[in-house]
Amino acid sequence: VGPHESRFERHLCVMDLTGTWCSFCPDGMTKLNFYVQKKEWKSITHMLALHDNTQGDDPMGIELSSRIMSDFGNYGYPMFVTDLRDSGSLSDNVGDILPSFNRSIDEFPAQCDVKLSSTLSGRSLNITVDLFAELAGKYAVSVFLVEDNIVAPQKDGSITHQDYNHLHVVRALVNNSYKGDSLGTLEAESEGSKSYTYTLPEEWKLEDMTIVALAITPDGYVNNVAVAALGESVDYKYLAE
Hints:
Number of strands: 14
Radius of gyration: 18 Å
Largest sheet: 5 strands, antiparallel
């Protein structure tokens, strides 16, 4: 029997651990974005910027950032995590970024995919995430709410930009753990599903928000990603025939 050949596109998730108080963080995002914007990665790599406010005042800070920092090596800010597997510094070890992307594709090919649907009523958001497993195993899903174009101060070297445009900002983790809500053991060629309801704060700009769902395989790594605007749906990402 030969290796499994997936019918799905393989998408990656890269996290940027950052803070508005962090003078090295804009440069870290620039370095990370340099790789993400390359032709071969742009359409399949999805960024999550996790802001921290334990080391300084950050209006976008969430506790999750410092927890992931601690779990993945505590390189200090800025730091990247690829597919909840590889991590490294965005100040020093930037040469680790591209190998982590290549490893995801070469060593961890798609064995599942996720699709998203949601409805929005006022500020109440209902989300359904479905995961299709091509191989049997224990799968999980994580769901993030992300906002772009947040204008807020950002320290950058020796200066502070008062009107910095922050992108890919994680506003909230909808489920219980970033490591995923379990779908239990799925048989090969079967689906699991989770549904969530979340009330969106008034200050979040709905038109700049997306839902990012991560498919997590039994090894605890991200194996696929789905992204959709609020109130919209996306299907599984089948490879072109």
